[in-house]
Amino acid sequence: MALSAFPAPWSDPTRRPVVPPRHAPRAAALLLPGTPGECAEARRFTVRTLAAWDLGHLADDARTVVGELTANAVRHAGTRHPLTAAEGEIRLRVTLRAAHLLIAVTDRGDDLPAYPGPAGDLDTAGRGLRVVEALSDHWGWTRYRPSGKTVWAQLPLRARI
């Protein structure tokens, strides 16, 4: 019996082949009425969603980003006195992608996010987008016509070094 000069690689027939998981996006969405108390519900929803996706290690950063983006939507999107319930709605969408977690908050306000100048030591507001920037790889917004916008942030799935 002759041996091949190029033998086949050894394989264990009892082991199942390793198949990389598909990175199909997973998404979860929440519709909020746009009142200040709903920011807490948005944070809880995010933590529950990440726990279900086995991404608990992202919960603190994601909860903070969601809190900042929904608070900005409530405060700056003109939803305090909406003419209709639909005008006051805020939509939160959390999407898992191959390399990052995408958090998007949509409202009907026309005002675009304004990145604040340097904050003073005694300022009690105006740091939200700086926090979002610090915790995310990228962030930005998309404007809609005739009104509305989505402010989004991408959080890395792996810990930063």
TrEMBL record:
The UniProt record lists the keyword Kinase: yes
Domain Histidine kinase/HSP90-like ATPase: 33-154
Listed InterPro entries: Anti-sigma-factor_SerPK, HATPase_C_sf, HATPase_dom
Segments of this protein annotated with the region Disordered: 1-21
GO MF term set: ATP binding; protein serine/threonine kinase activity
Matches recorded under SUPFAM superfamilies: ATPase domain of HSP90 chaperone/DNA topoisomerase II/histidine kinase
Positions of transmembrane segments: none
Keywords: ATP-binding, Kinase, Nucleotide-binding, Serine/threonine-protein kinase, Transferase
Annotated PANTHER family: ANTI-SIGMA-F FACTOR RSBW, ANTI-SIGMA-F FACTOR RSBW-RELATED
The protein's name: ATP-binding protein
